[in-house]
Automatic annotation (TrEMBL), chain A:
This is Putative oxidoreductase. Gene3D superfamilies: NAD(P)-binding Rossmann-like Domain. It holds the Pfam family adh_short. The lineage of its organism: Bacteria, Pseudomonadati, Pseudomonadota, Alphaproteobacteria, Rhodobacterales. One of its GO terms (cellular component) is membrane. Belongs to the short-chain dehydrogenases/reductases (SDR) family. It is an enzyme of class 1 (oxidoreductase).
TrEMBL record, chain B:
GO terms for molecular function: FAD binding; oxidoreductase activity. This is Putative decaprenylphosphoryl-beta-D-ribose oxidase. It comes from Leisingera aquaemixtae. Transmembrane segments: none annotated. SUPFAM superfamilies: FAD-binding/transporter-associated domain-like. PANTHER family: CYTOKININ DEHYDROGENASE 6 (PTHR13878:SF53), GULONOLACTONE OXIDASE (PTHR13878). Residues 10-177 form the FAD-binding PCMH-type domain.
Length: 245, 442
C-alpha cells in the first residue's frame, strides 16, 4: 500500500524539516511548502536520497490569505496529514512599540496558520479523513511580560485548534495540538536555554508522528512542561502580575 | 561560552559553539574569530574538535547531494553521519568502503581523522574511498582537492584533523554488498604470539579485529579473540534472512544512566569480566552469521557508553607499532598495563596494512587501543606507554589523544613538524586551531 503524502507548512523551519524527515523515513511522500520554495531544492534532494520517497516543493506564504484556497487546490494530491510549523517569534520590545511588528507576530502565529488549516480542514472534512497538526506553544498557556504578543497569538492558535478538533471530531478528521516547550532551533539560537527543558527538533518530530498515529489531542513534547505549565497557570493573578518569569 | 569536550569527557574546555547555516556565514566566522576548528558529532575522544574560544558545529551541513547507482559514488556534505549513509544505502545494497568502530561519526570527521576500519590491511584507510573533498581555506575560498587535483591539499586534509580548513563536502565510493549480514569467524588466541600468528595467516580475510584481554599476565599475556568477517552472500543466509537480505531485526538500543558509579569499574571487576568474556568467546568460537551493527559497531548499541567512566571522563591510548618491532613492543606495552592492573574491558588489537599518506595515523604493523578512566595513576601509565611506543618506532592516533605532550608527538612522528611547517607556510595556522593542535604545536 502506498502511503499518503504529508504536507509540511513552514518547511524551512528546523521543526518543519525534522518532521519531513520523520515522515519520509516512514515511507510517506512529502510536500514541502514555504516561501521561496525553489531554494529548498537541496533539502528535497537530501530527503529523496535518504528515504527514497518523492518530495515536491510548493510556494506558500502563510500571510497571503487570499492565496490559501488556490494553494490547496494546486497540490498534486490532497495530503493525508498536514503539519503547520509556521511561526515567528519577533522581538517583544519591538512588538510593544510598533503595531506593525506586533501585527506581524500575531498574523504569523495565529491568522496565517488558522487560515490555511481552515482551508485544509474543509477539504479533509469533505473527504472524511486526515490529520491536521498545529504547532502551538506553551507560551500561549499564560501571557508573560517577556513575550506576551507571541504568547497571545499562540493562545489564539491553541484555542482555534481546540475548536477545530471539536468541529471535526465526528467527521473523521483528527486535530493535534503540539506544545513543544523550548526547542533548539534557529528561532531560539543564542538564547540560554536549560538543557533538561529543551527538546531537539527531532524529538518534536517524533512526538508528532506518534501523536498522529495514536490520535492524541494535546501533546507536550517533554512531559515536564505539562507540570510546569500547570503550576504557572495556577498562580493567582494577583501574585503572577508581580513576578518576573 | 559553554563546557565542551570530546567523547572521553576529558579534558573540558570553555568554548563557544557556533553552528553556521550557510557558506557565507561560515566565511564570516572564519574571518571574525582569532581561530576556529570544525566539529562533527563530537566522537573524537579528546580535544581534536574543541576550538578555544570558537568551535564550528557542522550539524547544519548535513545534506546528501547525489548518488550514482551505477558506480556507488555518493556526494554529501560533511555533517552527514556514516550511520545515515548506511541507513539510506544499505537497503539498496551499498555499504561504506571503510567504517571505524562507531557509525556515529560524520563524513567530515572520518576524513579529518582519516579513520581506518577492520579492513585496513586490505583496503586502506578512509582516504582510499574518497574521490574528492571540498575544503574552505583561511581566506574563505572553497577548493576541491583529490588525488589528481590540488593533490597536496588532499594529502594533508586526509588525516589533517581539520587543521587544513573546514571540510564542506566530499565524494565517497560505497561498496556493493549482497546482504546486511556478516559471516563472522571467532578464533581464540591463548596469548599475544598466537594472536599475531592468526592475524598473519588471515591476511586474505576482508575484515579482522581482535578483542584483547589487557589484564591477563604471564603465559596468558595478550590472550585475544580474533574476529574475522566477510560480507555474507545470499547462499550464507538462512531461508528467512535470504528472503529479505537487508532487513535486520531491531534490538532496541540501551542508554547508560547519566552518571554511572565509577567505583563499579575496578581492576577486580574488569579482570573477572575479561576472563568471563574470553572463556565465553572461546567456547562459542567458530563461524556464525552476525548483523552488520553487532560486527562493526558493537558499542553503538549502548548509547552514551562513554559515561561508564563517570564524571572525570576517560582517555584512550592508541598507538601503532611497525611490523618488525610489533611483537616485542606489544609485549612491553601489555606487561606495563597488566602490571599496573589498569587495563579496561574495551581493548582492541588489529593488524594494519601499508599506508602511504603524509599525515594519517596507520602504518603497516599492529595497533593497540584501550581506555582508561582519567586519574593520576592512569595518566602516569599512559606516559610509560608513550615511551615504550616511541622506543619501538611506533606512533599515536590523534583522534584518540587527549593528553599527549608536544614532545611525545614530535619524538614519535617526524611528520608532525612537516605538517606544522606546511600550516605556517600556507597561512592555515592562524585560522584553524584546536585545543589539541595548540597543545601539540601542530
Amino acid at each position: 500500500m502506498t502511503k499518503s503524502p504529508v504536507l509540511i507548512l513552514g518547511a524551512r523551519s528546523d521543526i518543519g524539516m525534522a518532521v519531513a524527515h520523520a515522515y519520509a523515513a516512514q515511507g510517506h511522500p512529502v510536500q514541502l511548502a514555504a516561501r521561496n520554495a525553489g531554494n529548498l531544492e537541496p533539502q528535497k534532494t537530501d530527503l529523496e536520497l535518504r528515504h527514497g520517497v518523492p518530495v515536491s516543493l510548493h510556494e506558500f506564504d502563510a500571510l497571503a490569505l487570499d492565496y490559501h484556497e488556490r494553494f490547496a487546490g494546486a497540490l498534486p494530491e490532497l495530503p493525508g496529514i498536514a503539519v503547520c510549523a509556521v511561526g515567528f517569534m519577533g522581538e517583544q520590545g519591538e512588538s510593544e512599540i510598533s503595531p506593525a511588528a506586533a501585527a506581524r507576530v500575531l498574523r504569523s502565529n495565529f491568522e496565517g496558520p488558522a487560515s490555511i488549516l481552515s482551508v485544509l480542514a474543509s477539504r479533509f472534512e469533505q473527504r472524511g479523513s486526515g490529520t491536521l497538526v498545529g504547532i502551538s506553544s506553551v507560551a500561549g498557556d499564560r501571557g508573560r511580560a517577556t513575550n506576551y504578543v507571541y504568547g497571545a497569538a499562540k493562545a489564539g492558535f491553541t484555542a482555534f485548534l481546540s475548536g477545530l478538533r471539536n468541529r471535526l471530531a465526528r467527521k473523521g478528521v483528527h486535530v493535534v495540538t503540539v506544545l513543544p516547550g523550548f526547542v533548539a532551533t534557529q528561532m531560539t539560537e543564542g538564547m540560554d536555554l536549560p538543557d533538561k527543558l529543551t527538546a531537539q527538533p527531532e524529538e518534536v518530530a517524533r512526538a508528532i508522528t506518534e501523536a498522529t498515529a495514536k490520535q492524541k489531542n494535546i501533546v507536550y513534547v517533554r512531559p515536564v512542561w505539562r507540570l510546569i505549565m500547570l503550576i504557572i497557570r495556577s498562580i493567582p493573578e494577583a501574585v503572577f502580575k508581580k513576578m518576573s518569569i | 561560552m559553554r563546557r565542551l569536550s570530546g567523547w572521553g569527557n576529558y579534558p573540558v574546555s570553555q568554548a563557544q559553539l557556533l553552528a553556521p547555516r550557510s557558506e557565507a556565514e561560515l566565511q564570516g566566522l572564519i574571518a571574525s574569530n582569532p581561530s576556529v576548528i570544525a566539529r562533527g558529532n563530537g566522537r573524537a575522544y579528546g580535544d581534536s574538535a574543541v576550538g578555544v574560544p570558537a568551535t564550528l558545529h557542522m550539524r547544519h551541513f548535513d545534506k546528501m547531494i547525489s548518488f550514482d547507482a551505477q558506480t556507488g559514488l555518493l556526494v554529501a556534505e560533511s555533517g552527514v553521519l556514516l550511520g545515515d549513509i548506511i541507513s539510506a544505502f544499505l537497503p539498496r545494497g551499498w555499504f561504506p568502503a571503510v567504517v571505524p568502530g562507531t557509525k556515529f561519526v560524520t563524513l567530515g570527521g572520518a576524513i579529518a581523522a582519516d579513520v581506518h576500519g577492520k579492513n585496513h590491511h586490505k583496503d586502506g584507510s578512509f582516504r582510499s574511498c574518497l574521490d574528492w573533498v571540498e575544503v574552505m581555506g583561511p581566506d574563505g575560498t572553497v577548493r576541491r582537492c583529490s588525488p589528481q587535483e590540488n593533490t597536496e591539499l588532499f594529502n594533508w586534509t586526509a588525516g589533517g584533523m581539520g587543521l587544513t580548513g573546514v571540510i564542506l563536502r566530499a565524494a565517497i565510493r560505497l561498496r556493493r554488498v549482497s546482504s546486511a549480514w556478516i559471516r563472522q569467524q571467532t578464533i581464540p588466541a591463548a596469548n599475544l604470539h598466537a594472536a599475531i600468528e592468526i592475524f598473519e595467516r588471515s591476511a586474505a580475510a576482508t575484515y579482522s579485529v581482535a578483542w584483547i584481554d589487557c589484564l591477563a599476565g604471564g603465559g596468558r599475556l595478550g590472550r585475544s579473540l580474533v574476529m574475522l568477517g566477510e560480507h555474507a552472500g545470499l547462499q550464507d543466509l538462512s531461508y528467512d534472512q535470504a528472503a529479505r537480505p537487508f532487513a535486520i531485526p531491531r534490538f532496541g538500543s540501551r542508554t547508560v544512566p547519566p552518571v554511572f558509579p565509577s567505583f563499579a569499574l575496578n581492576r577486580f571487576s574488569v579482570r573477572a569480566f575479561n576472563a568471563a568474556y574470553f572463556w565465553t568467546g572461546a567456547r562459542k568460537a567458530g563461524r556464525q552469521i552476525t548483523d552488520f551493527d553487532s560486527y562493526f559497531f558493537p558499542l553503538d548499541a549502548l548509547l552514551g557508553w562513554n559515561r561508564i567512566y563517570g564524571r572525570k571522563g576517560f582517555a584512550q591510548f592508541q598507538c601503532v607499532l611497525p611490523l618488525d618491532s610489533a611483537r616485542p613492543g606489544l609485549r612491553a606495552l601489555l606487561q606495563a598495563i597488566s602490571a599496573a592492573g589498569q587495563g579496561s574491558f574495551l581493548a582492541v588489537l588489529k593488524r594494519l596494512g601499508a599506508q602511504d599518506s603524509p599525515f594519517s595515523f596507520p602504518m603497516e604493523g599492529y595497533t593497540l587501543a584501550l581506555d582508561f578512566p582519567v586519574n593520576r595513576r592512569s595518566l602516569q601509565l599512559m606516559q610509560d606507554l608513550d615511551r615504550i611506543t616511541i622506543a619501538h618506532g611506533g606512533r599515536f592516533y590523534l583522534a584518540k589523544d587527549s593528553r599527549m605532550s608536544r614532545d611525545t608527538l614530535h619524538a614519535a612522528d617526524s611528520r608532525a613538524a612537516e605538517f606544522a611547517g606546511m600550516r605556517q607556510l600556507s597561512g592555515m595556522h592562524p585560522s584553524f586551531q584546536s585545543a589539541q593542535s595548540q597543545r601539540l604545536s601542530l
